[in-house]
């Protein structure tokens, strides 16, 4: 029995080293087993960062990068940059495989379509452009915003695009016809983020007015508003199952909201400065965030505990792979790091 206890203590100590956590949170051995099994793949990937901080740096002549996102199959990354280009990267080789050129100003955001065949990007040139992800060729351009377009997202079925702009409007576009099908007005402050709900019927937006608003697309009206943040809300995104919304704010907190009750259910604290992004993993078990405090943090949704902290200077964007095993981050010095 004493020998078994000793072995268990060795295992726990090793796990704690991998997870960078203190023993204080451990209530019983069953909790350790549950947490270990749930995140074993993720932790095994991230433990490399304990030794060398980053496992890969993508090579290329890049300017300030605004965003990075994984492809649906997790084999590629798309980045948007101050050099007015959209770049597609192969994760395995770490090399650029396509560069999409055509924007006339900084490219603020880019995202793969749900089937991975298209890329949508938006820019300070007031346009949204659609690219063939395989050839890198521009195939469509959406015009209508009167100022720079800062965020763009595909609907879950890939048939629509939602965008927000410095013109303080949210617009919904038909991918096939390029037609603007909805416009949401009424904001008096900057809109920082927009995203479709998983069923494609709602849009969530966040703003410098400290609020999160969920919009009914069909009626083009506000469905409800979530209040609680004490400063600018930089991000608000639905969970994959549509039951929750995660938000990040300049008030240094990440909050989880229940969609049905419209109430805050968890508050994740730990960042020492403004939270610039927060998003769920695809299985809704993890939230990844980054902050002006120069850290990327990973959070266990069930417990609200911080799982991992990765330190890197000048972070401007972060994403988590579809399988939850890898993180990509970008920086204003033009580098992209793969953690895993």
UniProtKB/TrEMBL annotation:
Q: Name one GO cellular component term.
A: U4/U6 x U5 tri-snRNP complex
Q: Is Repeat given among the entry's keywords?
A: yes
Q: Name one Pfam family in it.
A: WD40
Residue spans of the WD repeats: 58-99, 100-141, 142-183, 184-218, 226-267, 268-309, 315-340
List the keywords (alphabetical): Repeat, WD repeat
Matches recorded under Gene3D superfamilies: YVTN repeat-like/Quinoprotein amine dehydrogenase (2.130.10.10)
Which GO terms of the molecular function aspect are on file?
A: U4 snRNA binding; U6 snRNA binding
Protein name, entry field:
WD-40 repeat protein
Source organism per UniProt: Reticulomyxa filosa
